[in-house]
Amino acid sequence: MLFEKIKSDILAHNSYIIGAGGEAAVIDPRRDCQVYTNIAEAWNMKITGIFETHKNEDYVSGSRELARPTGAEILHGRREEFGFGTGVGEGEMFGLGSIELEVLETPGHTQESISLLLRDRSVSDDPLMVFTGDALFAGEVGRTDLAGEDQRREMSEMLYASLHEKILTLDDGVIVCPAHGAGSVCGGNIGDREYTTIGFEAATNRLLSLEKEEFVEYKVNERLYEPPYFAKMRELNKSGPPLIYNLPHLRAVSARDIRSLVDQGAQIVDIRSPTSFAGGHIPGSINIWRTGLPLFMGYFLNYEDPIVLVDDFNLDLDHVVRHFVRLGYDNITGYLAGGFPAWFKQGERSERTGVWSPGDLAENLDDPSVYILDVRNINHRDEKGYIRGSHHIYVGHLEEHLDEIPRDKQIVVHCDAGFKGSLAASILQKHGFRHVTNLLGGTLGWEAANYPLIRERATLAAVPGGAT
């Protein structure tokens, strides 16, 4: 029996390929899908089925992309119409040699969510594993807010029923295979465990021990951020994303060409470290470090204007391109030839942001001309504490709240370590804030330098949200 989990880094997306008897199926494939055909070929198997556990919100589905070279049938929950594939419902069975997959309708995260119960008939008639999509994770359960606030209670009630009437009725030893791991935005606090079981979740997952009324109230009041690109993902994954065939080829763009591209509305994304960005960068560029791209590009980039990358040495850009492709940014077009050194060697104008150490901020903590802006998610602020006198706006919502930030003061931005702080500083500078400083080390450095964080619940105004 073939079973392999394919993890997409940063997004914490899990997809799976299973097979037996020369046939294989892929569950929740990503858009750059050659990995599945490579595995199938290595096992001398043909991919005949592709299952979507639900209409994903945080990445572009790879079902159509994978069906093109394989001819495999795409199957998804029947409770919502898709622009592609075939709807399936409760109790339907699908065979792959000795493997049997049974469809369980498990709505709640989305209306059409399904789980897939796997049996290996060559060994036993008992269920071996269940692919739960976004219904059940390690230590967490799925979001119920994405259908809209007006449906949140109904979706929470449906998820409770799906969990307790379908998934948790399985034997304790059944292996749980969710669509996401720790760090995903599709759950509030997903555990950092590669594998889990029904019995372990029933015993340790705090949400599964709640009575229905408690569970529903918790989910109705749960605070979770929804990146704006989720709406685009739902649109693409319902209608069917465009085929890309291969990863986009990025063209090398000269420093002089960058200027004209900016004049035409190009989006310049600087993927260097906060310290490199602070030392000098192209005016109007935004700083999203490499591993932050999947988490934050969807907040600040549009799907129309060309995207150009800026790095120091342009290493492994194919891996960077995958982050954009998985989120549907087919408008990524180029990179600065020669890296940022080519910019200043050409004598082009550069901008800088300030940097402070924790000691610098401590010395200026009571200065009325200093405005301290905390851009962490609100749960981190509430749970881990905050710097005295700081104000809170989550970095993803910063552009919506620019009028709340004084332009006549020194803005000192901080996050946990300095990376989101640099992103926020670049956004502020792009919008005309001239005196912006990033606190290197963030709250981690602040505490390491023996400065205190206030650990009572924050009462300052905060953007609604949760873990991202």
TrEMBL record:
GO biological process: glutathione metabolic process; hydrogen sulfide metabolic process
A matching Pfam family: Lactamase_B
CDD domains with a match to the protein in the record: POD-like_MBL-fold, RHOD
Entry EC no(s): 3.1.2.6
PROSITE patterns xrefs: RHODANESE_3
Top enzyme category: hydrolase
Listed name of the protein: Hydroxyacylglutathione hydrolase
Organism, as annotated: Methanoculleus bourgensis (strain ATCC 43281 / DSM 3045 / OCM 15 / MS2)
